[in-house]
Amino acid sequence: MAKRAKRVKPITLRNNAPPAAPPPPAAATDASDSKPRGRRKASTQKLIASYHTLNKKLHAVLKAGDSTAAGSIKTQMEAMGGLHAYQRASLRGGNEKKGLGACGSWLVQQLRAELAELRDSEAEKLVVVAENGEEEVEEVEEEAKTGSPATQQKLKLKLLDVGALDGGTYSKQASWIDVTSIDLNPQCQTVRKQDFFERPRPTGAHEKFNVLCLSLVVNFVGDPKLRGDMLIHARRFLLPRGLLFLVLPLPCVKNSRYMSHAHLLAILKSIGYELVKHHFARKLALYLLRRVEQFKLQDWTKTQMNPGIERNNFCIVVKRS
Ligand SMILES: C[S@@+](CC[C@H](N)C(=O)[O-])C[C@H]1O[C@@H](n2cnc3c(N)ncnc32)[C@H](O)[C@@H]1O
């Protein structure tokens, strides 16, 4: 008898997943749920692609000061169900391609290694010791070397998940990752409603993180200059040697006229990140990057490097201000 394929649990159905968001407004109701699977997948992808296109156009017309065009684009976006419908489509798309589940486990492996390294090194001091005062830090670090389970529970990586959507991505790792989740339009009560660009700069190490996650968020931002700003802003929230986990759709680095893997790494290097590891999954490009202190911020413009009409326009612009 033929073996049955192992089912991968979708990321949104994991154990300890936070409570579901309140029902969407009528305009955002997902009519495609009743469609056959193939058609549903196609309409999900179409909705995501159309939303991205309109979002990019909106940024462009707003930049040009054309409020009439902006109004008309916003109306089109609302007619599609707005950000809420886009987010629901993203959650469905993630389940269908199993990409997020895969990228979750790839990251978890890296972070486990990171935590183990942190315990053995000077950087151990960067690990957050929940609910302990200063004197206890030394004690806990000493214990960490002996590997006592009680201590291991106290040592957690602090992670900021930007664009967390339903906030469930790291729920299985709650014993060793302390997650703060934000999104423009949260799909769950544990995710704070906040525009990352408006998150105030940290005033000290206690407001910084060991890891910051930008998973499918940079490509969501319509304006290439704001993408660069987002990467610069992210670095401010990282502790020294902290990690940025950046996920982009694979075509952003593999099939863009204005971007390539090497170009992306060069931009990131100039912003103050060095590559730890990367992985190209079927549909996603995953990057784990470390904050470094020695770097030279430079401007990056939109420059065509891979001509071709079949290619996309994804790019990142950096402008020192
Ligand atoms: C495609 S979803 C990605 C969700 C999730 N991170 C994942 O990997 O599946 C992009 C999310 O980023 C959020 N987002 C975009 N710009 C943001 C910003 N400036 N601040 C906070 N969230 C933002 C959107 O609201 C949306 O929920």
Automatic annotation (TrEMBL):
What coarse category fits the chief subcellular location reported for this protein?
nucleus
Q: Which GO terms describe its molecular function?
A: rRNA (adenine) methyltransferase activity
Give one Pfam family, short name only.
Bmt2
Q: Where in the cell is it found?
A: Nucleus, Nucleolus
Keyword Cell inner membrane in record: no
Sites binding S-adenosyl-L-methionine sit at G163, D183
Keyword annotations for this protein?
Methyltransferase, Nucleus, S-adenosyl-L-methionine, Transferase
Q: Does the keyword NAD apply?
A: no
Region (Disordered), start-end ranges:
1-45
One GO cellular component, as annotated: nucleolus
**The EC number(s) this enzyme carries:** 2.1.1.-
> Record's family?
Belongs to the BMT2 family.
The job of this chain, per UniProt, is described as: S-adenosyl-L-methionine-dependent methyltransferase that specifically methylates the N(1) position of an adenine present in helix 65 in 25S rRNA.
PANTHER family listed in its UniProt record: 25S RRNA (ADENINE(2142)-N(1))-METHYLTRANSFERASE, S-ADENOSYLMETHIONINE SENSOR UPSTREAM OF MTORC1-RELATED
Q: What is this protein called?
A: 25S rRNA adenine-N(1) methyltransferase
- What is the organism field in this record? Geranomyces variabilis
From the broadest rank down, the organism's phylogenetic lineage runs:
Eukaryota, Fungi, Fungi incertae sedis, Chytridiomycota, Chytridiomycota incertae sedis
